[in-house]
Write a structure and sequence with these properties.
With 239 residues, the protein is mainly beta. The protein is 14% helix and 39% strand. The chain is built from three helices and 17 strands. The strands form five sheets. The protein has a five-stranded antiparallel beta sheet with strand order 1-5-4-3-2. Strands 10-11-12-13 form a four-stranded antiparallel beta sheet, with no helix packed on it. The chain has a four-stranded antiparallel beta sheet with strand order 14-15-16-17. The model is unreliable at 1-19 and 231-239 (pLDDT under 50).
Length: 239
């Protein structure tokens, strides 16, 4: 690389780093940014490192053949949640993050290709926020009357307004940990083989990993529910 190109690359890297996200050409450069590597996570499609006391994570995408780093705000306590792990034989894995303290202005996940995928929140969240991981390719958060879903296949986020779904209680008074099946009684099927399925007043919403967004399908049952509430279902309007 010529001095001119090296200078330009350095300027671009500094600009991206100022946004909290930076690409590195090698593991050595990534480790230097992390200062002291605390842990390495090896997955079929990527390698993951994070630095002690830096709130920064570095991931090497084996498909894109490059390192990238994301640095969380210093006021957040962040922990990694993964569908894989050491000794995992899964061919695809997804990674999300647990947040403590606030405000939380952005949700971050790592898709199955080893790429950071960010979602800017319109309204900051506070308190403890943990991802629920479904299979190897999806995760979701329930907070502030919404379900924030992420597909590791498409690398996309989407939200669904669902104020009737309670927020996850990770540890109840009896010491029991969260069971996704407990949400079935509220109309949220998080264990379905057909993605994430939520029963709404106007129909059924589904989030599939291969699509990466919520789709709502009107149903006769939803129309009947609206009629029972004293509301008349509106007929579809033609083009």
């Amino acid at each position: 690389m010529t001095p001119k190109l090296r200078s330009l690359a350095s300027a671009v890297s500094c600009f991206i780093a100022s946004l909290g996200f930076v690409l590195f050409p090698s593991q050595a450069d990534a480790q230097k940014h992390l200062y002291e590597v605390k842990r390495t996570l090896s997955e079929p499609t990527f390698e993951l490192l994070y630095g002690r006391g830096t709130n920064a994570y570095a991931v090497y995408s084996k498909t894109r053949k490059e390192w990238s780093t994301y640095k969380f705000p210093v006021h957040l306590k962040v922990g990694l949640w993964t569908s894989g792990g050491f000794g995992s034989i899964a061919t695809e894995t997804i990674n999300g993050f647990e947040y403590k303290n606030g405000p939380i202005n952005q949700l971050v996940a790592i898709d199955t290709k080893g790429q950071f995928c960010c979602f800017d929140l319109k309204k900051p969240l506070n308190g403890l926020l943990r991802p629920s991981i479904k299979g190897a390719t999806m995760l979701y958060y329930i907070a502030d009357g919404k379900i924030y879903a992420f597909s590791g296949v498409t690398g996309t986020w989407d939200t669904l307004a669902a104020p009737h779904i309670p927020e996850v209680v990770w540890l109840d008074a009896m010491g029991n940990t969260h069971d996704p099946k407990s949400l079935l009684q509220h109309g949220f099927d998080a264990v379905s083989t057909d993605g994430l399925v939520v029963t709404l007043k106007q129909g059924v919403a589904r989030f599939l990993p291969e699509r990466g967004y919520w789709e709502i399908e009107a149903s006769p049952a939803a129309d009947a529910l609206e009629s029972a509430d004293g509301e008349t279902a509106e007929e579809p309007k033609g083009e």
